[in-house]
Amino acid sequence: MEAAAASLSGSNIFHRNYRFSRSIIRSRYIASGSRYFSNSDLNTQNHSVFKGPNLSNVQIQKRNLRLQTNCALGVCTFPENVMESHHSHVVEEKLGVLLLNLGGPETLNDVQPFLYNLFADPDIIRLPRLLRFLQRPLAKLISVLRAPKSKEGYAAIGGGSPLRKITDEQADALRMALEAKNVRANVYVGMRYWFPFTEEAIEQIKRDRITKLVVLPLYPQFSISTTGSSIRVLQHIFKGDAYLSRLPVSVILSWYQRQGYINSMADLIEKELGKFAKPEEVMIFFSAHGVPVSYVEEAGDPYKDQMEECIYLIMQELKARGIGNDHTLAYQSRVGPVQWLKPYTDEVLVEIGQKGVKSLLAVPISFVSEHIETLEEIDMEYKHLALESGIKNWGRVPALGCNSLFISDLADAVVEALPLAKALSASTENDEEAEYDPLRYLVKMFFGSILAFLLLLTPRVLLAFRNSLF
Ligand SMILES: C=CC1=C(C)c2cc3[nH]c(cc4nc(cc5[nH]c(cc1n2)c(C)c5CCC(=O)O)C(CCC(=O)O)=C4C)c(C)c3C=C
Ligand SMILES: [Fe+2]
């Protein structure tokens, strides 16, 4: 199955071929306390997702000039397909907007099953094809091993993730912002790893008989591990469903370059800088969520390019306001024994502290809600580390949340995406889709668990995991 991603700007700045490999989807049931829930698992092959451009600074600057005039929006519409009309009467249009997000555990008991869902995602732990059968046993093992550390983090921020509440508030604010622009829409929230799951949101969309859908992931920059993973789930839900495959859909792949978003980030930074005694001496420290290097270098994840471009645009906006502070970008939240994008936030904080930087403003940049990585990792761990390393004045820019300029810009993005909505191919071919076979599943789980344990007991893996997981 293939979907094309093209810009809305009229020029083809972001035209890319976005190929999702054929995947297998199976329903599974996982115990969560006394409750059982179903979730989708994707077994993907050939991650040839998004060949991201490798841009030099000059190229980025040239592209930015075009972006500023075009205000481009990366939009993916499902492949060209004329929606068949079986009725001669005109159907009243009912617009839906689906906000995609990661989801987070609401209680400490949710932490381990939430982590299981996350690590069972082949877009998060990307195993070679031959080792795919280890995905779930490994997910089980890693989630059990990591849960105590994660629980500590969630306990420190009040016993659970605020993500669901904030995303619901953003959905409400977006509905109202659309209404203010004379666009009536139902806004749904679909989470990738916790409630309300994307599957539940889609069920509601079907019940509401939505006739046009805009999909808006709440990640400004595209990554295989975030937007890519959520869209893959959507594609599987849509495939084989008669109603959904005829529903005109437009997917906004990334929106970090939108002027409204850039301006609202610049507003927040300017406001926080104003709280320092000597604002011009403050280093602006962008801390982005990391991804493993292999995502970018092997799978073509455009995340790093988009992140650099995003920061360039914010700094340009600040410069235009007469703010010329030093700035830097580092990557946080690495997990596991592989190489992640560098430089690492914790290392850079120590370095710049030792070099004599005295005032620092941390700017979380990958995400638009407060969550564990802002409230615990940045506000507690990194702040502590920075102060220990010689930084005297610490500040942190809040996440955008329901900032009205930001939400209004998202509403504009939705309006701009509407005319591009197209239906998914009605194809329901299942050639590579395996039927769910409980016996096969149990056998795989059994042997996979044994192999996963053996692998984990090798000294190299043990050492790497001890250092990075717990
Ligand atoms: C193991 C690989 C991970 C990748 C790759 C990854 C990418 C990635 N994640 C976010 C945003 C969020 N991550 C959150 C939680 C979270 N993420 C990972 C791992 C990877 N993330 C773990 C293990 C966890 C659980 C928390 C923990 O144990 O540290 C969350 C939810 C936070 C909450 O409040 O619940 C968000 C949001 C981005 C943007 C990203 C790639 C660009
Ligand atoms: Fe994450």
UniProtKB/TrEMBL annotation:
<dbReference type="InterPro" id="IPR019772">
    <property type="entry name" value="Ferrochelatase_AS"/>
</dbReference>
<keyword id="KW-0350">Heme biosynthesis</keyword>
<keyword id="KW-0456">Lyase</keyword>
<dbReference type="InterPro" id="IPR001015">
    <property type="entry name" value="Ferrochelatase"/>
</dbReference>
<dbReference type="GO" id="GO:0004325">
    <property type="term" value="F:ferrochelatase activity"/>
</dbReference>
<dbReference type="Pfam" id="PF00762">
    <property type="entry name" value="Ferrochelatase"/>
</dbReference>
<comment type="similarity">
    <text>Belongs to the ferrochelatase family.</text>
</comment>
<dbReference type="GO" id="GO:0005739">
    <property type="term" value="C:mitochondrion"/>
</dbReference>
<keyword id="KW-0934">Plastid</keyword>
<keyword id="KW-1133">Transmembrane helix</keyword>
<keyword id="KW-0472">Membrane</keyword>
<keyword id="KW-0627">Porphyrin biosynthesis</keyword>
<feature type="transmembrane region" description="Helical">
    <location>
        <begin position="445"/>
        <end position="465"/>
    </location>
</feature>
<dbReference type="GO" id="GO:0006783">
    <property type="term" value="P:heme biosynthetic process"/>
</dbReference>
<comment type="function">
    <text>Catalyzes the ferrous insertion into protoporphyrin IX.</text>
</comment>
<protein>
    <recommendedName>
        <fullName>Ferrochelatase</fullName>
        <ecNumber>4.98.1.1</ecNumber>
    </recommendedName>
</protein>
<dbReference type="InterPro" id="IPR033659">
    <property type="entry name" value="Ferrochelatase_N"/>
</dbReference>
<keyword id="KW-0408">Iron</keyword>
<dbReference type="InterPro" id="IPR033644">
    <property type="entry name" value="Ferrochelatase_C"/>
</dbReference>
<comment type="pathway">
    <text>Porphyrin-containing compound metabolism; protoheme biosynthesis; protoheme from protoporphyrin-IX: step 1/1.</text>
</comment>
<keyword id="KW-0150">Chloroplast</keyword>
<keyword id="KW-0812">Transmembrane</keyword>
<dbReference type="GO" id="GO:0031969">
    <property type="term" value="C:chloroplast membrane"/>
</dbReference>
